[in-house]
Amino acid sequence: MSTYPLSDEEHEIQDRARRFVDEELIPHEVEAEMNEGRLPDGVRERHHEMALELGFYSMNMPKELGGTGMTTLQQVLVSEQIGRVTNGLGWCVHTPPGWAPDVVSDEQLDRWIVPSIRGEVRECYAITEEDAGSDVDSIQATARRDGDEYVLNGVKWHVTSYNTSEYIFFQAKIADGPNAGAHAMFFVDKDTPGVRLVREPKYSHTYSDSHATLAFEDVRVPASHLIGEEGDGLDFTYAWFRYERLMIAARCCGAMERLIEEATAFSQERVQFGSRISDFQAIQHMLADSLTELWASRLMTYELAKNIDRGVDVKVQHAQCSMAKLYASEMANRVADRALQIFGGRGYMRENVAERFYRELRVDRIWEGTSEIQRNIIADQLAKRGVQTLTG
């Protein structure tokens, strides 16, 4: 039972997610690790259906569109449990773009967003480029208006889940006209002529979802594929960043909890020099520091989620999402390092949970804005809004 004040409904959601992770996902981790992320036929499909049935899929989307309509705190509780499993197995719980329903056209809603909510199709984001990572404004991709169409050009890196998606959010700068240089975002179906898979690099983690490099070569899309107006694209990206940063923090909390549980259990069984290693002060201190950092990360993440549910100013959200992502991801990496050390040689084996998390958690300090970028955001908001506004 959590010591944090949660309602009965929130406890039920938390428990439901934990059972799903423990009973359905964690048992497949080592199998996925040893098989390039692949699982036997039917397993992923079953996980997908269960995520839908349990109400976790599209938990961020409005009920009137077919989503679950969970509060932000409820979503954090689910994501935290999803963070307890390795190998991307928790990605069966998918959250389509929550920012979209308020800005897309009715045609776009029916064609892409509602099917995504139902779990019939998935999306991926083509934003990052070779020379534009955390600095999104430096992208070189272009969108040129040509009559009733736009012509899209650019090369995108790290397009996560390209291999499991049916359509792409493509971000570009307007090439000419009164809005030249402004950001714009487009729906692009994956099979549109001119979309070319360049390669799917191997990454440190062992996931079935790829992170592709894509070339967009004179890709023509109808003007109706533009989302919102020319110049709106960066706002959508920032909304996505805020949400993802919060959910990264939540998943990092889950990972820390799993690592502490596993390392504690091992330390109580492992005997060296005639004593359990849990009796050694060096081990005790590592576990104590890890537990303290988990508690601090969890409190920060939960309170941020509640602030969002209370309707806190979006600029404050932006800073607090950066703070939560920065702190939780940095702490999770420290906890993973300690857990691996406690396991010793076993911790360096791929079949060990600490080894997998040691690799997997590293990217949380990079994607959706590096730790350094988060610090820049926090410092900028501190200068503009002050300590009281950002910390209460």
Walk me through what this model shows.
The protein has 392 residues and is an alpha+beta fold. It has ten helices and ten strands. Strands 1, 2, 3, 4, 5, 6, 7 and 8 form an eight-stranded mixed β-sheet that branches. A two-stranded antiparallel sheet has the order 9-10. Strand 2 and strand 3 (149-160) form a beta hairpin. The radius of gyration is 22 Å and the shape is globular. It starts with 7 loop residues before the first helix and ends with a helix.
Task: Determine the structural class based on helices, strands and strand pairing.
Answer: alpha+beta
Sequence of secondary-structure elements:
HHHHHEEEEEEEEHEEHHHH
Number of helices: 10
Report the biggest beta sheet as strand number plus sense, adding barrel if it closes: 8 strands, mixed
Which structural traits does this protein have?
alpha+beta; eight-stranded mixed beta sheet; 392 residues; 15% strand
